[in-house]
Amino acid sequence: MEKMPKWADVVLIPIISLLLATILSAIVILAIGEDPIEAVNLMVTGALGSTYGWGYTLYYATNFIFTGLAVAVAFHARLFNIGGEGQAMLGGLGVAIVCLSVPWPHWTIALLAACAASMIFGAAWAAIPAYLQAKRGSHIVITTIMFNFIAAAFLNYMLVNVMRPQGSQDPATARFPEAVHLPTFQSMFSTAENVMFRGAPANISFFVAILACFVVWALIWRTRLGYEIRAYGHSETGAVYAGISPVRITVIAMLISGALAGLMAINNVMGEAERLVLNATEGAGFIGIAVALMGRSHPFGVFLAAILFGFLYQGGAELALWTSIPRELIVVIQALVILFTGALDNMVRIPLEKLFMALRKGSA
Amino acid sequence: MDFFLTLVQVLDSTIRLATPLLLACLAGLYSERAGIFDIGLEGKMLMAAFFSAAVAAVTGSVWLGLLAGIAASLVLSALHGFASITFRGNQLISGVAINFLASGMTVLIAQSWFKQGGRTPSLFGEGRFESAEFPYAIGPEDAELTGRPVSELMSETNALHLAYSELLSGHSILVYVAFLMVPLTWWILFRTRFGLRLRAVGENPAAVDTAGVSVVGLRYAAVAICGVLCGIAGAYLATALQAGFVKEMTAGRGFIALAALIFAKWRPWHAMWACLLFGLLQAVALRFQNIDLGGVVIPVQVMDALPYILTVVILAGFVGKAIPPRAGGEPYVKER
Amino acid sequence: MTVPAIELKGISKAFGPVQANKDISISVAPGTIHGIIGENGAGKSTLMSILYGFYKADKGEIWINGQKTDIPDSQAAIASGIGMVFQHFKLVENFTVLENIVLGAEDGGLLAPSLAKARKELKALEEEYELFVDPDKRIDEIGVGMQQRVEILKALYRKAEILILDEPTGVLTPAEADQLFRILDRLRSEGKTIIVITHKLREIMENTDTVSVMRRGEMTATVKTADTNPQELAELMVGRKVLLQVDKVPAQPGKPVLEIENLSVTDSAGVERVKGIDLSVRAGEIVGIAGVAGNGQSELLEVLGGMRPGQGSIKLNGERLAMHGPGSDGQARRAQGVAHVPEDRQREGLIMDFYAWENVAFGYHRDPAYKRGLFMDNAALRADTEAKIEKFDVRPPNGWLTAKSFSGGNQQKIVVAREIERNPDLLLVGQPTRGVDIGAIEFIHKQIVALRDQGKAILLVSVELEEIFSLSDRIAVMFDGHIMGERLPAETDEKELGLLMAGVAGEAA
């Protein structure tokens, strides 16, 4: 017997959780002596009030779509990939190598190559934890955390000792050549008389991210591989019975997850920074966790949640600019969202289930 | 003598750096032995570091600071317990949330409280933990008396006296607390009723429940002890190792502690050795940067990454398998 | 009249929409053995869990020795002198026997004195009740029979006067079960009150003083055991006349379909579970494997079904099957013509959160019939589901419900439909009627016999001797990884099989 309708599970619970997170955030803002209504106003104007704001919101959202999808795919196989951050860092390395080592004639070809490289690098970074989980039973949460730190150290080494141009003090690669610069929204949507998205970093990667949503949706719900991933995620013993190899699914799901996280690099490294810097990922790998939890691991949900977090990030930056509220407010909101949609899910769910049971009894 | 002095100094620094790891590692040990995974050690330490430094700065008393740090860490522990024990949520996700909560809240509160860009004012005098000088050890007092720097006095004395002065003497009281916690934890775990029940609840909570002992009560107790120890660890960072709180000052120590816990296979004495090993790696990295081993240069980043690499190797089971408590990570649901 | 040791008055308990106990009243005299019998899911275990403070009753009262007693938790139950031996033992595997007995009943904060005291008291208890165990052995080093003794000693150490045992013989050999009942008899003679929950009529008839029958959450009768008979109890359990025998014509066995030679299986912990067995199943024949749970039958099925590797030789229609690596997994087995109704439908046979129509493809999801281009052909799959739901009378007939929304019987019908409709050469069936209501049992048995009559080979594993007897054309008994012997159902009886199941070898078949 289902305890409540599916729409309540998919829509109502995330919305209530979000509401709780919002209320708590408002209390936090009040507590540090600021006006929450004013703060929301500032955030909305800053993030959504102009094409410039949208340009940033969608730029951030693009990052979060990739990392959110990465976490979501792993979730379907009941794997918790906390390693999105490290995988995205490695994806950045792949993009940098591709962009700097080949004289690309046109950005389109460069983008395809960068996509491939970032996915391969991200997947490779997920491969070892995946293999260890599948073959040796090493807890993937711990190994992916460890791999984040190892990735940071590795990237640090690469940027300081290997890829830094001679004479530069900055731990970063050289700028990418003009030919691999991706079209920004500004260049795509502006007309002669009306400049839109001026100076905002949103770029063509956003459409790659949307494409990724469709591909992931089809993969998970329409293909046999997706069927196997979901079946394995629900029951490992069931998977073995059905002849679905846990080792194979664990590795494949993590490779896809790592590839998606790595793919983020076409946005932040190739599309925005146009070189690889330290800490290029800025925690986007972790935000993917919140995004996937809120989006209920469904690509459409991930898309919406990513836009929401994009809004929060841009709005938060505006807030930090105009008020004394630091950007870390967003980290708090992110924590609250993870808390309510993830860890405290039952706190919201159990009363709702009781409510629906009571309603059903009442109508029966 | 020079080499020996350097060695002793590195070992001294090892002890200082191992202390927060050890406290956090033992904190995790209590929690995970009771079946509650805790990847939120980092967050609890960070929160405690901030509140201990903030209260110490405001009141001028490091002891009040310590209490505040412990209280702050306990609040997060309660949240973790609430999510993972009462509401049977995902313990890993709860830990992730707690880390972010601490990371954001500390800066947010620091900014609105002190307006120094997310840090607390520097601590001095009563606001910091002083180092304890043992009798006959060389310390700042001797330096004052002779009018010569401590390091000079150190380099002149014999090896035994040097080791005594650097390694045993001259640490903050929290260092001694941390190392005393090791035998104490062993004793509690394996020689007391509480320890028996704690281990049982991490292995098979149903056995504890049907024996008429509250699973929820035990697990909350474990999580609370974890909170207290993380609180001390955080306070040590901000009021003893350093003089004040800075943004993200835990710098992954919570995760290294977690790594040490796995490395130690959830046993107290092994935890101490693991933390000392990881402390040594940090101390060496701090002192030498790139190490030249007869032509082969080991970059500092390798030292940074070594604790994590070692943990992965251990987890992979190539060097003895690490088997966590059987009921770890699983919320307890009554069933027949 | 003596005061009853336990009296339950009007106990009701619902789990969400399911009414597990409805207005149940029962009274047990001290110094007696009282049986509670009922089908799976009749609410027996729920009732006892309420008595042990595991669940809280929605309504009703509990009276212990004439005192109205509130039992909010296990602590209170223990304090009222109630001890419980659960079906799945509640022991800490890596603790010693002594530590398990002491856990929760320690004296003072330090362990050493508690353990010393317990060691002494344990010795006294052992002698009083002839319950010998080695206090310093770890639980994972001793067998299930011993573990059960530890559970009983745990209760006695806590001064239990009332002992509840939930399906105590499920994991025991008939000999071990007899021994258990001797222990219980002894406890009764010492004045203890004992409640035994079981679904085995024989145990009730042989060992209890009074018996209560439960059906669908209700108490249908309480009678003196001496005044009733198995047929009457069975009818009370089921609520109508039951056929204990399956109608079937004699088998017409053909050529061998499955030939097993010297098959061994070692589990992931390195324990050898199946130790070099030979077995064959012919076309048009049902071979039943009898045995106490845990003697290698599950592993045998799992190797044949491609769920784990093995050594030796398995031939299907004369072709040797791979037993590890490529060609040995469940997908390969299905392609080779083996269908498998697994022992545990909830953990293996179905994905409980998948829709019924998704489950109809489970294991066959790579079948070209369900494929369209790059994707799965969900429309074809749903049409197929509708046909199977109708043919196997799955209720409610709705493919868009998740597997967990169906009753146990209907879940099993979905699995059986999926496997039988594949028209396999060999059907593996594990515990086909575990947790299934009588109506569905009859239906499923008929389907299995019908498949046999089409000339297919069927290998049945069941721990229910009755089921083995009524379905099998030939019976093989497994004990400790060996096949102890093969018998024809007409030429053997429960007693002989019981001896074989306990490892007492008969003459080779």
UniProtKB/TrEMBL annotation, chain A:
It is found in: Cell membrane. GO terms for molecular function: transmembrane transporter activity. It comes from the Bacteria. The chain crosses the membrane at residues 12-33, 53-75, 87-104, 110-128, 140-160, 204-221, 249-270, 276-295, 302-323, 329-348. InterPro entries: ABC_transp_permease (IPR001851). Keywords: Cell membrane, Membrane, Transmembrane, Transmembrane helix. The keyword Transmembrane helix applies. The keyword Acyltransferase does not apply. Its main location: membrane. One of its GO terms (cellular component) is plasma membrane. It is a multi-pass membrane protein. It holds the Pfam family BPD_transp_2. This is Nucleoside ABC transporter membrane protein. It comes from Ruegeria halocynthiae.
TrEMBL record, chain B:
It is a multi-pass membrane protein. It holds the Pfam family BPD_transp_2. It is found in: Cell membrane. InterPro entries: ABC_transp_permease. Keywords: Cell membrane, Membrane, Transmembrane, Transmembrane helix. Its main location: membrane. CDD domains: TM_PBP1_transp_TpRbsC_like (cd06580). The chain crosses the membrane at residues 47-80, 92-114, 173-190, 220-239, 271-290, 296-319. GO terms for molecular function: transmembrane transporter activity. GO terms for cellular component: plasma membrane. It comes from the Bacteria. PANTHER family: GUANOSINE ABC TRANSPORTER PERMEASE PROTEIN NUPQ, SUGAR ABC TRANSPORTER INTEGRAL MEMBRANE PROTEIN-RELATED. This is Nucleoside ABC transporter membrane protein. It comes from Ruegeria halocynthiae.
From TrEMBL, chain C:
GO terms for cellular component: plasma membrane. One of its GO terms (molecular function) is ATP hydrolysis activity. Residues 6-241, 258-505 form the ABC transporter domain. Keywords: ATP-binding, Cell membrane, Membrane, Nucleotide-binding, Repeat, Sugar transport, Translocase, Transport. It is a peripheral membrane protein. PROSITE patterns: ABC_TRANSPORTER_1, ABC_TRANSPORTER_2. SUPFAM superfamilies: P-loop containing nucleoside triphosphate hydrolases. Its main location: membrane. The keyword Cytoplasm does not apply. It holds the Pfam family ABC_tran. InterPro entries: AAA+_ATPase (IPR003593), ABC_carbohydrate_import_ATPase (IPR050107), ABC_transporter-like_ATP-bd (IPR003439), ABC_transporter-like_CS (IPR017871), P-loop_NTPase (IPR027417). Gene3D superfamilies: P-loop containing nucleotide triphosphate hydrolases. It is found in: Cell membrane. Belongs to the ABC transporter superfamily. This is Nucleoside ABC transporter ATP-binding protein. It comes from Ruegeria halocynthiae. The lineage of its organism: Bacteria, Pseudomonadati, Pseudomonadota, Alphaproteobacteria, Rhodobacterales.
